[in-house]
Amino acid sequence: MKKLALFGALALSMMSLVAHADEKPLKIGIEAAYPPFAFKQPDGSIAGFDYDIGNALCAQMKAKCTWVEQEFDGLIPALKVRKIDAILSSMSITDDRKQSVDFTKRYYLTPARLVMKEGATVSDSLAELKGKKIGVQRGSIHDRFAKE
Q: What b/e string do you get for 78-105 counting C-beta neighbours within 10 Å, with b at 16 or more?
């Protein structure tokens, strides 16, 4: 029931973007390089959790939607110059991003985890990690956290 309420809230917020859905398609930006949320299938089509949610929202709104594949770093700039009308691409809500664009309520949470060799320990201060090599996705909020 909670998921349905969140989907409904997301759909309502996206509806404000589509005053006349039957006249002009809603252009949704997505980066298809982040499985299982969005990825390319062997035939070149997009699939994944974010893609499925977007299609369900479009069906619920009875809106024609088109997907615009974009590099992740280009999604917010594309939104700002109106190349796309919305972003549905597993974007973390940060204070910096909130200064630039509006967000709906998040529709899922995937907390970060630190994975180490069995038996290794690190204190809550993480001071023991200074000078160590840590694997993170480049350009992500986890990359920024590790550098700081």
A: bbeeeebbbbbbbbeeeeeeeeeeeeee
Give the global pTM: 0.69
* Burial tier of 45 (Cβ tally within 10 Å: 0-12, 13-18, 19+): exposed
CA nearest to 21, candidates 65, 81, 83, 74: 65
Residue 12: name the closest of 99, 108, 105, 83 by CA.
Answer: 105
pLDDT digits (tens, 9 = 90+) for 2-34: 554 455 555 555 555 554 445 789 999 999 998
For the four alpha carbons of 28, 29, 32 and 35, in that order, the dihedral sign comes to: negative
Each residue of 109-119: pLDDT tens digit?
878 787 888 98
